[in-house]
Specification:
Blueprint (H helix, E strand, L loop, with lengths): L8 H12 L5 H8 L3 H14 L15 H12 L5 H7 L5 H12 L24 H13 L4 H8 L3 H14 L19 H58 L1
């Protein structure tokens, strides 16, 4: 069985027709059903290309042979259309899938057969992803029945990232996908325990600074004592030298 979409064929067709009738915008439709704008735009392109059959339910997950992938990539590189155009033409759910195949092809990495339930593993490097992309990826995964593996292939990101972004989106919504690395929480954002921990860390830093100052003062005093001793020895040597010269003259 293919993965069941969150939205039925009838719902998708209704959304597309409401847009094509000119009665509503893509933005308002996306907000109404809580999906990203690109999802609605993708439905509309597919509907315009294939009509009512665009959203027929598949009896099995789509499989792609390496020959098919190469054909798609070559069509894109030959200028037959944009990534979106090529995806619609070859009935590929997301243009990001085409982009991944093109990148692999250009990097001289062998395209492999994809058979549902089998393994198709490429080493995915970490890449920077904006907040908007994280939102789109999380929504896409949720719309496709939490298909983490399929989502990471479509958007060229790691499985663990997709899993974490979906979890954060479920817990805190779009705000949960903000990049907070390197950002310290304000006092009003902390609970009582967090505030106490922060105050303790500040006291520890103050104590550490105080100990450092004491060590520095001791070092300065030691240097000063050494300097005074050297000066005293120098004066003593000068005095003894003068006395010695006087005795010699006598």
């Amino acid at each position: 069985m293919g993965r069941k979409s969150k939205f039925s064929k009838e719902q998708k067709i209704e959304i597309c027709r409401r847009y094509l009738d000119g009665s509503e915008s893509v933005t308002s439709l996306a907000e109404e059903i809580n999906v990203c704008i690109t999802t609605v735009q993708r439905w509309i392109r597919i509907f315009q290309a294939y009509g009512d059959s665009a959203f027929d339910e598949k009896t099995a997950n789509e499989s792609y042979t390496k020959e098919f992938k190469r054909k798609v990539v070559e069509a894109y590189l030959a200028g037959e259309g944009s990534l979106r155009d090529i995806a619609v033409k070859y009935k590929i759910p997301a243009c990001g899938t085409v982009l991944v195949w093109v990148k692999l092809y250009n990097d001289h990495i062998e395209l492999k057969d994809y058979i549902p339930g089998g393994k198709e593993i490429y080493m995915t490097k970490c890449r920077k992803v904006t907040k908007e992309e994280r939102i789109e990826i999380a929504k896409y995964c949720m719309e496709h029945n939490l298909d983490y593996s399929g989502t990471c292939k479509v958007f060229d990101v790691t499985y663990s990232n997709v899993f974490n972004w979906v979890r954060k989106y479920k817990e805190k919504g779009e705000e949960g996908l903000s990049d907070r690395r390197g950002r310290r929480k304000k006092d009003e954002e902390l609970d009582e325990l967090g505030l106490l921990k922060k105050q303790l860390r500040e006291k520890e830093r103050e104590l550490e600074r105080a100990h450092l100052e004491i060590r520095l003062l001791k070092k300065v005093e030691e240097i000063e004592r050494r300097g005074y001793a050297e000066q005293a020895n120098s004066r003593m040597n000068i005095s003894q030298s003068r006395k010695s010269r006087k005795k010699t003259k006598r």
